Amino acid sequence: MSKFGGSLLGVSLLLTVLLAAATTAAEYYNYGSALDKTFLFFEAQRSGKLPATLRVKWRGHSGLKDGLAQGVSLEGGYYDAGDHVKFGLPMAFSVTMLSWAAVDNRKELSGLNQMQQTLWSIRWVTDYFIKAHPQPNVLWGQVGDGQSDHYCWQRAEDMTTSRTAYKLDQYHPGSDL
């Protein structure tokens, strides 16, 4: 679990910059459109059973067997960096940035007609984290293997195997996560 998630981190930082810029230059640029494309990226990274309202029509359900070999449902969350691994740390960072943006920039997000997309993006990850924390002192911090996944060039929808999931508990510490 040593990989630091580049794509989700980058998009989260982009969202923060766009919101800051939107407050001063919204009259010159269409920041609502830029934010909308950011949320499309988040939608394209979704794992699990996708809602009918998903705007990225080429995506389908994926990762439906995540956690089954370990006896827990870990479907949901976001894939990281163009592969099919779900890393807890970058996902947590992304949802934290989205949440702070929703709190600190409610007026701007609403004015750009992006508050609902923000809340949906937050909800997708928080629902996953509820599943990933099934009992006290247990957190499933990663699904998939970062090394082998980087060599697997297939659509997430075509994954049919149960994937390795990594549990943090008293026997498998991970205070860095």
TrEMBL record:
Source organism's superkingdom? Eukaryota
Q: Which reaction does it catalyse?
A: Endohydrolysis of (1->4)-beta-D-glucosidic linkages in cellulose, lichenin and cereal beta-D-glucans
Q: Where is the signal peptide?
A: 1-26
Q: Where is the Glycoside hydrolase family domain?
A: 31-177
Gene3D superfamilies this protein is in? Answer: 1.50.10.10
Q: What is its EC number?
A: 3.2.1.4
Q: Pfam families from the xrefs?
A: Glyco_hydro_9 (PF00759)
| GO BP, one annotated term | cellulose catabolic process
List the molecular function annotations (GO) for this entry.
cellulase activity
What InterPro entries does the entry give? 6-hairpin_glycosidase_sf, 6hp_glycosidase-like_sf, Glyco_hydro_9
Alphabetic keyword roster: Carbohydrate metabolism, Cellulose degradation, Glycosidase, Hydrolase, Polysaccharide degradation, Signal
* Family the entry assigns: Belongs to the glycosyl hydrolase 9 (cellulase E) family.
- Know the name of this protein? cellulase
List the source organism.
Brassica napus
